[in-house]
Amino acid sequence: MNLKNICLGALALSMIGGVAFAGALDEPDNMAPFFTDSGMKTMKPMADFKTAFMAMPMEKQEAMKKECQDAAMSKPHAEFCANVQALGGAN
Question: What is the residue range of the signal peptide feature (predicted)?
Fold first, then answer.
């Protein structure tokens, strides 16, 4: 019985923890304004990127900047993070 409770607890923590790993760069609603297509494959030109970034709430901007400074998080979003860095993302 005790082993069963431990396993269920571990499962619950892993499910909750998995949600915690999803960040601002993984949310399609946050990323959509920076791309020209619905599949988010083609990024907008820098002028449009800057306009979209500056229109976001400061909290989201800061979250994106922070995630772009994390090597593991920024790797799959390299082009996006390069643009964030160009806008002064390195605090």
Answer: 1-22
Instruction: Report H helices in the chain.
Output: 2-21, 28-31, 46-55, 58-69, 71-74, 78-86
Counting Cβ atoms within 10 Å, is residue 21 exposed (0-12), middle (13-18) or buried (19+)? exposed
pLDDT of residue 15: 54
Residue owning tokens 């800057």: 50
C-alpha dihedral, 18 to 40 to 35 to 87, nearest 10°: 40
User: In the structure encoding, which two tokens stand for residue 36, read together?
Assistant: 């020209």
The answer to whether the pTM exceeds 0.90 is no
* The dihedral formed by the CA atoms of 13, 19, 20 and 21, expressed in degrees to the nearest 10: 110
Radius of gyration of the chain (CA): 17
